[in-house]
Amino acid sequence: MESGAGKHWTEEEVKALLSVWSEKNIRKQLHGTLRNKGIFIYIAKRLQELGVCRDWKQCRAKYKNLKYEYRTVKYAHNSGDVTKTMKFFHDLDAILRYGPVTQLAAEENGRCSATETQLNTSPTTERTQ
């Protein structure tokens, strides 16, 4: 499948991007990093392994667009407007809701929640997500 600069992302391509983006080390590197070309080169290579042919600029543009759309929908929901939706909102919410990678605490229902303080933790801290 050939994907040029002007081609729309397919649902499968977006899902592949989200799966790479959801990895702990990727989230950690992307959070708060302004000069992130190297990270997106790595993401593009990972996507190629998954059969998605996109360059790093396309990956970065899609990342930024998805984040913008997510924040727009999230703000609307917080303002009481539940009519605004997007296709991958729940996937993005799982990736973006905590911002930085923080120490996780298990809750009764089996889910994990981030603690309020950001900690310098070992790589084994976030195995549950």
From TrEMBL:
All residue ranges annotated as the Myb/SANT-like DNA-binding domain in the record: 7-95
Span list, region Disordered: 110-129
Compositionally biased residues, Polar residues: 112-129
InterPro entries: Myb_DNA-bind_4
Entry-linked PANTHER family: HEAT SHOCK 70 KDA PROTEIN 14, MYB_SANT-LIKE DNA-BINDING DOMAIN-CONTAINING PROTEIN
Protein name per Swiss-Prot or TrEMBL: ZSC20 protein
Organism listed in the record: Sula dactylatra
Gene: Zscan20_1
